[in-house]
Queue: 3 jobs
Job 1
Amino acid sequence: MQILKQSRENLFGRIELEALIEGIEGATPSRKEVIAGIAKEIGKSADVIAIRKIDQKFGRTKAIVYARVYETKEQKEKMEQKTVLERGGRKKGGKKEESPSAAAPAKTKENVKKEEKKAEEKKEEKKA
């Protein structure tokens, strides 16, 4: 990773930066991977970095990252839009996101049978 531009915004207490990621094989790197790379590059904690955009053209092995680095985590949560925070691993309530498998109820034989029964009832209602 290479930092292309870095500008300080004293009013907002942050640094805006553009970084270049080269040698990408396969899919665009995740936001968590990019945050870790930027944190390592500039020597800050991952908690104070917000990724605005990862711009990779189809078929290219390069991507440009637009990010903001805040002085504190509280400053980041106060200044960034909720959607940016959600993409960075936060839910609307300010809690960390759980994996979908942990949040979904376990599928037991009873649940599967109930779902099948409801689907059959809907089919019968449509026929009638």
Job 2
Amino acid sequence: MAKHVLKTDTKAAYDFMLFGIICQHHDYRLCFELNHALNLSLERTGDLELTLNKGKDKIKTSRFEYKDGFGNEYFILTNKTSNGLFIAEYKNIDYFFMVREPVPMHEMLQLEKQLRTIPVVLGAYHLEPEKIKTGERFIF
């Protein structure tokens, strides 16, 4: 039987902003501070589970989510899990803050500054998912 290979254009799927956050507190504490500082209502939803290496390995990361009335979505994903790292390239990053909302560059920089002013956040950095080797893990 002939083998058929389907190719997808994943670059079009990166329609979100991504920030790496360094924070030594638990995920619920970070979300509490984000809710207060950014006027969000992040709530814990079901964990995001990925199957890797043809079903041999699984990574389960906690996920917090908020959808506002304008169709914008906000997510917090834990990088450090009991089974390893969600994104191994960023071993110093504790959490990923993902915003599915098309915004201009100046607003993205403003959001990055706001993240850095949160007391429990030690560092916040804008990341480009297109440049992450395993960036497709953010597509769910």
Job 3
Amino acid sequence: MNSVIAKNETILSYIIAIALILLMVAASVILDDPEVILPEIAAMAIGIWVYQEPGWIRQPSRIFVAPSITAAIGFAINQVDLPYLGKVSITLVLMIFPLAYYLWSRMPLNGLL
């Protein structure tokens, strides 16, 4: 009985991960923009739902939110009509903020104060 439940959970995990990937592909086709497909999100979907990586499962919202925010920043900056060097510079500066927040919010402060 337990093996049947485990098999059903595995099948459901694959279905959820593949559905998320197909949703990105569908959005890319509908919006006619290949930049909507984010390989990082696809890799995280497989890591969290299919392989159930223990380090990722502990805080799945953090695993999803940080790359999503930085991807949105990169996508938005790429839509702006600027030279390539300007886009890269602005993107790097803007990505420092969410990454610094996640770094500082995970650090134990009791030994630092």
